[in-house]
UniProtKB/TrEMBL annotation:
One of its GO terms (cellular component) is cytoplasm. It holds the Pfam family Ham1p_like. Keywords: Hydrolase. This is Non-canonical purine NTP pyrophosphatase. It comes from Haloplanus salinus.
């Protein structure tokens, strides 16, 4: 059984659209979210910690909105910026008036089951000693040598005036092919979302694991 580490049941439902029925379950585990300029080390560190907690295969994701004009901000800090600055203010900063800004939603899935991985086009994070040192872990080499497989999903779009009442987070200001994520139904959004694209890559690989 694969444990999807999240407090958001919607993410598990989205994963179930790609994985076989009954093969994934939700794990509510508060892993350490390190500070990093990219998503990969955050997800990888969380997957290692979650695997040590669960003792079973785990999947952890980290995602963010990357605005070209703002040099990728808010990126890995998207959730914090949403809570403190607010979605509409981020949109105003990005647009600079009526001029839309190019942006991308990115998601990185991190998978860990305690075993090594064969080489493939998808990257493998083989150790997070720097991250472990940053949070002061003293769990030894076994804690930082667990290999983690990473899968990225990206969807390009632009930042616009808020539209739509669905979705959550930055969905009202992120437009993809003329429609904001908040204007899409869940099925339509999942079909093009960054998380869905990462899940598609993961499930294709996981089928042969």
């Amino acid at each position: 059984m694969l444990r999807y580490v999240t407090t958001n049941a919607g993410k598990v439902r989205e994963a179930e659209e790609y994985l076989d029925d009954g093969s994934v379950t939700q794990l509510d585990f508060d892993y350490t979210e390190i500070q990093a300029p990219t998503l990969e080390p955050i997800a990888a560190r969380g997957a290692r910690e979650a695997y040590r907690h669960a003792g079973a295969p785990v999947l952890v994701d980290d995602a963010g909105l990357f605005v070209d004009r703002l040099d990728g901000f808010p990126g890995p800090y998207s959730a914090y910026v949403e809570e403190t600055v607010g979605v509409e203010r981020v949109g105003q900063l990005a647009r600079r008036g009526d001029d839309p800004a190019r942006a991308a939603f990115r998601c990185v899935l991190a998978y860990c089951d305690g075993d090594p991985f064969d080489a493939s086009p998808d990257p493998i994070d083989r150790g997070d000693r720097a991250a472990a040192a940053a949070v002061g872990t003293d769990e030894g080499d076994d804690a930082t040598d667990l290999p983690v497989k990473l899968f990225e999903g990206v969807v390009r779009g632009r930042i616009v005036e808020p539209r739509g009442s669905g979705g959550f987070g930055y969905d009202p200001i992120f437009e993809h092919e003329g429609t904001t994520f908040a204007e899409m139904g869940s099925t339509g959004k999942n079909a093009v979302s960054h998380r869905g694209r990462a899940l598609a890559k993961f499930t294709e690989w996981y089928a042969g694991r």
